[in-house]
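@here heads up, posting the sequence + SMILES for the pyridoxal-5'-phosphate run so it's all in one place. Ping me if the SMILES looks off, I pulled it from an old spreadsheet.
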Amino acid sequence: MDAQSSDLYQKALAVPLQSLQWSVAKRHNIELLVRRDDQIDGLLSGNKYYKLYFNIAAAKAAGFAQVASFGGAYSNHLHALAAAGRKYEIATVGLVRGERPAVLSPTLQDAEAWGMTLYFLPREVYRTAQASLTNDFLNAEFGRTYRIPEGGANEAGCRGAMAIGQAIEEQLEGAYQQVCLPCGTGATLAGVAAGLPCNKIALGFSVLKGVGDLGADIDRAYRRVLAPAGEMKSAANWRLLTGFHGGGYGKKLPPSLCCFWREFELETGLLLDPVYTLKMFWGIACLAEAGYWRKRARLVVVHTGGLQGRRGFQQQIDW
Ligand SMILES: *Cc1c(COP(=O)(O)O)cnc(C)c1O
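bot reply: prediction finished. Complex structure tokens:
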């Protein structure tokens, strides 16, 4: 392990695993250990800490003083990137979907307060912007800029997430069966699975309504991140679960899911974000009701953070 990987791995090892006291788990005789990656850093929360780690390092190594990336007005990724800019002392540009609103979302207010330059792209432009906004455009508009894809979903992002899988195995010395995590681009799932031993399965709960090529993307990312380590696994140790999107990415939550959210938080005291971790826990509960989990299964559940996104759901959080 090189020095940077080792630093990230040490950081990942310090993240606590907490046994979740939850009636659903008790009733179905399973044990849930919540990995509190939401607490890894005061500002740069959750899986984005890992996904940005080698991206920022790569930008710096290539001599860039500025990085840019893409996201919506409530994007955890842009929020984390702005925090990373402060932490690692590198300028940041946020390319934001939609017109600039009269009042910025709390997410973008933070990002701007932390020094991120915001640049708004009309939706039609944003749709193809990752491919069509050339480096020449970025450099001309903002000065020499290193580009990170939306969600930090590239090989460097996956490589960072590997540290989560490696740390879990070390912390529990193998005494667990599966690792659950929510999935957007799936880069975190690919990385976590790559970091786990072959006999441990990483289960991703997709928050997207249409899955499209997600499985193929994850497969490609998984192979690519494993290849340099020269340790192709005999069989892929990740699974993608769909059907727990609750209406789709960033959409208004159905009342039943709001109800689940409220009951979960009041009972367990563990706060969830509305876009990702809520849907994962809901999925875990649905699968428990369906008898999916083995008796006495010991599951690690990664709390991937995103709690800043609760601010966009203030009216619905009335407990
Ligand atoms: C971004 C994010 C995810 C999704 O990560 P991917 O690597 O895109 O699958 C999951 N949970 C939270 C809280 C996030 O912010």
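MO: The mean pLDDT is 95.
MO: One more: The beta strands are 17-19, 31-35, 66-71, 91-97, 117-121, 146-147, 178-183, 201-206, 238-241, 298-302.
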